[in-house]
Amino acid sequence: MLGVHIKDYMYTLEHTQRIPISLEEAWQFFQNPSNLSKITPSEMGFQILSEVPDQMYSGLFIHYKVTPLLGIRMNWTTEITHVKRPHYFVDEQRVGPYRIWHHEHHFKEINGGVEMLDRVNYQLPLGAIGKMVHPFIVEKKLNEIFNHRIKQVEEIFGKWND
Q1: Is residue 99 domain-resident?
Q2: Mean pLDDT of residues grouped by 10 in the chain (162 residues)?
Q3: Enclosing domain of residue 81
Q4: pTM for the full model?
Q5: Alpha-carbon gap, residue 131 to 11, rounded angstroms
Q6: Based on the structure, what is the number of domains in the chain?
Q7: Which of 22, 54, 60, 140 is the most interior residue, by most CB within 10 Å?
Q8: How far is CA 84 from CA 18, 31, 142, in A?
Q9: Contact 54, 29 (CB under 8 A)
């Protein structure tokens, strides 16, 4: 029997932001799971369901409720898979809307502050349908979320002056 195989596509999203704070201050804020709600758009209905420590560690599972797209409320579970204080940590989706979600958070000390890089490698479910809706719905929404995050971080820590 002849079958058609649709290639699953991996996408990468990168956002870089410079913040006028110390590396330690950046690390303390971003490695605290409770602070995620402060930089997530309110329309996403972000709610942490599990008890979380003030400091993350490899092997930490965090359970959320979130409304990522089209008003659909869902569970999302991430695992913190790598932590190298104060330079980076990685969270990976274990339950949620993506087939694969691998989010790296990098922090680098620079003159006058910190450069923060978010790199997300992700894969959508539904094969060709996922590929078709990616540029119009998913990519657009992810960019909105990260642009909101940039604005919130500027409100909390101040704007970078070049």
Answers
A1: yes
A2: 51 95 97 93 92 93 88 92 97 94 97 96 87 88 93 96 78
A3: 10-157
A4: 0.91
A5: 10
A6: 1
A7: 60
A8: 20, 11, 25
A9: no
